[in-house]
Amino acid sequence: MSTQSPRSPRAESSARPAAQGAPRGSWHRGRWMLLLLAAVCAAPIVVSYLTYYVIKPAGGKTNYGALIDPQRPIPDALAVTDENGKTVPLASLRGKWLMVTVDHSACDDACATKLYFMRQVRATQGAERERVLTVWLRTDAGAVPDAIARAYPDTRKFAADPAAIAAWLPADAGTSDADHIYLVDPNGNLMMLFPKNPDPSKIKSDVTRLLKWSSIG
């Protein structure tokens, strides 16, 4: 008849931590999985901004437009009136990349040139152009010339308070908001300011790069 020697108290105490450690390890693994999932979801936005704010080639910057820092979100109180007389918040356009220009409704040659540049930059994005909206913020409620309305049917035309626009949109020294084209990201943050009398091919390069690196919008 065989007998088993009783386990010592020391052996029993040394076995307990191993048994108790399994749930703790599972909890840690679960936490790391959640963190990894959050990182994957945030990656597209992070990459798009790192492309401009951090990653720069040797000897120069990557962007043509001036980056807006700190960000300027579309003010919740900034209301605009569309061509049908309906007043809506400009922030309702969030979800798309916005190319924005500011000018009076009569639209002189400089105004028409900006509208033309925005239309062409958008058109050259190919299948990605649906991610971009061109927006004209008119500083008065006057009538848009028929020739302009026919030439730019896809440009969203809104009447807005010029003081409210100026409070949101910055301008280079010696210029006004009417001298620039602006880029707003799909989260509603003003991202770029392009210079007066810009080079449209360089605007195109900036927009193409952003659409390539970012899946938002």
TrEMBL record:
Residue ranges, compositional bias (Low complexity): 1-19
UniProt superkingdom: Bacteria
The intrachain disulfides are 107-111
MF-aspect GO terms = metal ion binding
Task: Give the stretches traversing the membrane.
Answer: 32-55
What keywords sit in the KW lines?
A: Copper, Disulfide bond, Membrane, Metal-binding, Transmembrane, Transmembrane helix
Chain spans, region Disordered: 1-25
Residue positions annotated to bind Cu cation are 107, 111
In terms of Gene3D superfamilies, this protein maps to:
Glutaredoxin
Q: Which family does it belong to?
A: Belongs to the SCO1/2 family.
Q: What is this protein called?
A: Cytochrome C oxidase subunit I
Which species does the entry assign this protein to?
Trinickia terrae
